[in-house]
Specification:
The protein is built from four helices and ten strands. The protein is an alpha+beta fold and 179 residues long. The strands form three sheets. Strands 3-1-9-10 form a four-stranded antiparallel beta sheet, covered by helices on one side. It has a four-stranded antiparallel beta sheet with strand order 2-7-6-5, with no helix packed on it. The protein has a two-stranded antiparallel sheet with strand order 4-8.
Length: 179
């Protein structure tokens, strides 16, 4: 069994900018630069046969041209003291949303059942431990809410495997697809 998702890797210069912001919040398990990405679709665990089928379907989702994206703002998923994830937002982009929909449809055509969620493109900066105080989280978000990156160009997306651990997943690129 393998646990897979599709994502766009954040370019190194943009990742460096994000890593410099990863301070000042006790109880945050900050993600390393190599783990910073924009998830397109999460598929979960599957057999190697299903992974091969997914790969074949993802080839069809590729080849529509590069994307130009930028980051804007920060926030947290979860309610107040139940916040679990700190993120940097991605500026709205119709082509990105369409790519995410194609990746999800690829999973369905491969016989998988990816979770049906409203797509909210973001880069996970940290996973939050229950010890994170609400006031400290609010102060961190307020201090970084004007985050705005320059546009960055992406010309491929990847199929990644994930192994979960106490501070989040460890990701390995399994396959790349041109945009």
């Amino acid at each position: 069994m393998v646990r897979l998702f599709t994502a766009l890797a954040v370019p190194p210069d943009i990742a460096d900018t994000l890593v410099r912001r990863q301070t000042g919040l006790p109880g945050a398990a900050w993600r390393p630069p190599e783990a910073l990405h924009i998830t397109l679709s999460f598929y979960g665990e599957m057999t190697l046969r299903q992974a091969d089928d997914l790969d074949g379907e993802l080839v069809r989702a590729a080849g529509r041209g590069p994307l130009s994206l930028s980051l804007a703002g920060v926030g947290a998923f979860g309610d107040g003291h139940r916040a679990r994830t700190l993120w940097a937002g991605v500026s709205p982009d119709e082509r990105l949303t369409a790519l995410a929909a194609r990746c999800e449809a690829s999973g369905r055509r491969a016989g998988l059942d990816p979770p049906r969620r409203t797509y909210h493109p973001h880069v996970t900066l940290a996973y939050l431990k229950p010890t994170v105080r609400d006031d400290r989280l609010a102060a961190w978000i307020q201090g970084h809410n004007l985050l705005q990156s320059p546009p960055f160009r992406l010309d491929h997306f990847g199929l990644y495997s994930s192994v979960t651990g106490p501070n989040g997943g460890t990701y390995s690129l399994e396959q790349e697809y041109p945009l």
